[in-house]
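Structure, all two chains, one model.
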Amino acid sequence: MAEQVLNKKSYIDFTETNLQGQDINLVIKEGNATVETLRKREKVSSTFWTIIIYIAITALALIMILPFYWMIITSLKNNDEIMATTQTFFPTVVMWSNYVYVFQAFNFLTYMTNTIVVAIFSTLGTLITTIFAAFAFARLQFKGREQVFGIFLMTMMIPGEMMVISNYITVASFGWVSENQTLLDAYLSMIVPFWVSVYYIYLLRQNFNQIPNELYLAAKVDGKSDWSYLWKVMVPLAAPTLISITILKFMGTWNSYVWPNLVTQKSEYRLISNGLRGASFSDPDSGITQFGYQMAATVVVTVPLFLLFIFFRKYIMRGVGRAGIKG
Amino acid sequence: MSSVNLENSTLSNRFYDPKLGELEEGYNAEKDVIVNVVSRKNIKRKYTVGGVLDQEQRNNWKAWLYLSPVLILMSVFLIYPLINTIAIAFMQNYDYITGTATGITFDNFLIVLGLKEIVPATDTMPAVFETNFVNFAIPNTIIIVFVTVPLSITIALLISVLLNKIRWLQKVYQTIFFLPYVTNTIAVGMVFSVLFDDHGLINFILGTDTVWIYGADRWTAMVPLVLYIVWGSLPFKILILLSGLQNVDKQYYQAAKIDAAPGWKVLLRITVPSLWPQILYLMVTSFIGAFKEYTAVKGLFNNPGTTKNSYELYTMVYYIYDNLNTQTSRAAAAAVILFVFILVFTFLQLGLNKRRSR
C-alpha cells in the first residue's frame, strides 16, 4: 500500500493486488471524490454557469432592444391604448393607419431624397480626398510626412463645435446661406464642409500600409506610374475599408442634425432627422402628442439604417472596431 | 527606403542611415547591403541602400499634390474656423453678417461665466447676469461626463466579458448589442421619451407616476437622459472591448484556473489590466464625446429644459448652438471654454496613464 502525496488535496492509491500485474489501477482522489465524480461535478457546475451566463446576457440583450420593440409596437397602437394605465406588450388593435397618416402628413420622401443626395455627394468627395491623402501618407516619401500626419491626428481632438460657428459664417459668405437660398445652395452647404475626415484618412492609411511594399516596387519596375498603381492595385485591395467608409459616412449623414438645421433656410431643404424632430405630432384639436404617429415616423427613419446594417454588418463593425486596435 | 540624414558631409562616399548606421559605398558585408551613389554630382541627396533608390526628394512635390485637396479643405473648414472662432470670442459687438466688431475685449468670457453683467444695474433694476452657462450648462455637462463614462465602461466591460464566455449564438448577441449604434440619435431619443412618459412603460413597470420628461424636476430628468446616453454609447465600447478580449493570451486564464483563482479576481487582475489600452482609449474618446453631448437632450426633450422656456438641461454644446445666431461672440467664448475643458481632461488622463504605466 503506497500513498503518494501530490499536493494538499490529491492522492494516488496503488491497490496492492495489482502491484505485480500488468495493469496498474490508478485512482486520483480529491477528498472523498474520485475522478468520475469530480468530472461530473465540474460538468454540472460549468453547465450551471453557462446557463446563468446565457440568462444574464439574454436579459441584458432584451433591455438593449426594448426601445426598438417599444417603438414598433407603439407605432401600431391607437392613442387610447398608449395612454392607458395598463401598458400592453402587444397592440390589441393593429393600427396600420398610423403609417398611412405619417406618409400623408409629412414630407418624408422629400427629406429622404435630400438625405440621400447629400449622403452620396459628401461620400464621393470624402472618398476621393481620403484616397489621395492616405496614399501620400502610406506610400510616398516626403519631408515632414510624420509631422503632418501627427498634426492631422491632433485635429481629431478639436471639438467640431469650435468650427461650426465660423463655418456657418464661411458658408454664408460663399452665398450658400441667404434669404433666397436655392436647393443647390442648401445641398452645397451641407456637402462641401464634410469632404474631409481625418479618421477615415487614418483608417485607410493603416490599410494601405498593410499592402506589401514589394507590390509598389514591382509596379515601379514595370514602369507603372504612382497614379495607375493607386487606382489599379491599392484601391481594389483596400475595397473593404472603402466600403466601410462609405457606409459609415452614409449613416453619419442620415443622423446629422445640427448643421442641416443651422444652414437650411426652408424646411423642405432639410434632412431626415430635422424633419422628424421638427414635425408636430400633436392633435390639432386637443394639442395632445399623438405618440402613435410619432413612433410610426420614428420607425420610418430607423428602418433604412437597420436594413443597411443587416446587409453590411461586417463592414460597419469592422470600420468602427478598427479604431480600437491601436489603442 | 529609409529617410536620409547626412551627417558626414565631408566624407565623399560615406552615408549615415538612421536605421543602418554609417554606411560606405560598395558592398557592406556587416550590414549585408549594397550601397550605390546614384549621382556623383549630388552625393548628399541620392544614394541607394540594398539597390532601392531613396525617393525622398523625388516624391516631394507629388506627395503635396496628392495632399492638396485635403489641405485646402482643411484649411478652409478646420484651421481657419478654429482661429476665427477664438478671435470672435475676443471681439466686442461682433456682427457675423457684416463681419464687423468694435474692439477687442475679454468681456464675452466674463459674461458667459456670469462674472460680468449683461445689463448694468440702474436705480430701479438690479444688474442682469447670464446665469445659464454657469448654473446649468457646466454642471450638467460635468455630471453627464462623470456619470455616463464610468457607468458605460463598467457595463460594457461586464457585457463583453459575458459575451466572450459564450460560443453558441455569440454572433447573434454581438449583433444585438451593436444595434443602438446604427440608429438615429434623435429618433431613439423620442422613443425614450415615450418610454419615460407619465403613462409610459417605465412608470407602469415601477408602479409609479413620476414625471420624467415634460415638466420634470431637473434631477429627475437627468435619469432618463443619463440612461439614454449610456444605452447609446454601449455598442461602440462593447465592440472595442470584445475585440480586445479576444486577443488576450488564453494562457493567463489557464494559469488562473490551475490556481483556482475566483472569478472576480481573474476579472480584476487579468482581464482589466490586459484591456488597459482599450479602456484608456475608450475613456479619452468617451470623455470627449460626453463633453459634447447635445443630440440626446434634443431627442429626449426637444428643448434645453423640461418645459418650453426653461434652460435647466443646457449642456455646454446646447448653449453654443442656442446662442450661435444671436450672441455669436458668447457662443464662441463658450466654445473656447469647452475646448479648454477637453484639452485639460485629455492631457490629465494621458498623464495619469503615463504615471500608471511607469
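Residues 132-165 of chain B form the longest helix (34 residues).
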